[in-house]
Amino acid sequence: WPSRVLDLTQSEAILHAGVRKSYRHLINRGQRRWRIEEVSGQQVEAYHACYALVKGHQRPAAAAALMTQWIKDGNGLLLGAREGDEWHAFCYLILYKDGAYYASGPSLEPGAMHALQWAAILALKARGVRRYELGWQARLGDTDKDRGISRFKAGFGGEDRMVQAVERVFPE
What we know:
The chain has helices spanning 12-17, 21-33, 44-55, 61-73, 112-126, 144-154, and strands at 2-7, 35-38, 76-83, 86-96, 99-104, 131-136, 159-162. By secondary structure, the protein is α+β, with helices and mostly antiparallel strands. Strands 2-3-4-5-6-1-7 form a 7-stranded mixed β-sheet, with helices on both faces. A hairpin with a 2-residue loop joins β3 and β4. α2 (21-33) crosses α5.
């Protein structure tokens, strides 16, 4: 499957030039509206609560605990957008060696994820991360929603790289 990957060894100016023009206004507006910051400690619970609101169900407790532990261990990075004390959106990234993967992005506000993704790109670059994988791109037969998500990810530049995916099916 193709997956969208950004080369973070490029300058910030080159990365910014790769962002879709229509996103630049959304990023600037989001930076003015929300305070975007790294989230840790007790504030991580706000992320899990936002995820539950957006998805309509709680993430399994074991998965939530693991994601929280990854943040504590430095293998996860969580950015959030808030207005005052109210959190509106989050961007969860998995970190491994010199790479990062966009894992989750619950948002209660349209446009917040554009500003969060740009903040994530800059935060990862500042940490010395060399590549940022935004995730799989839509394929034939995927839904309109899948295609929309793929278009969003592609709007931050980078290129599609092929990744191998294996599905293991267990007999019942």
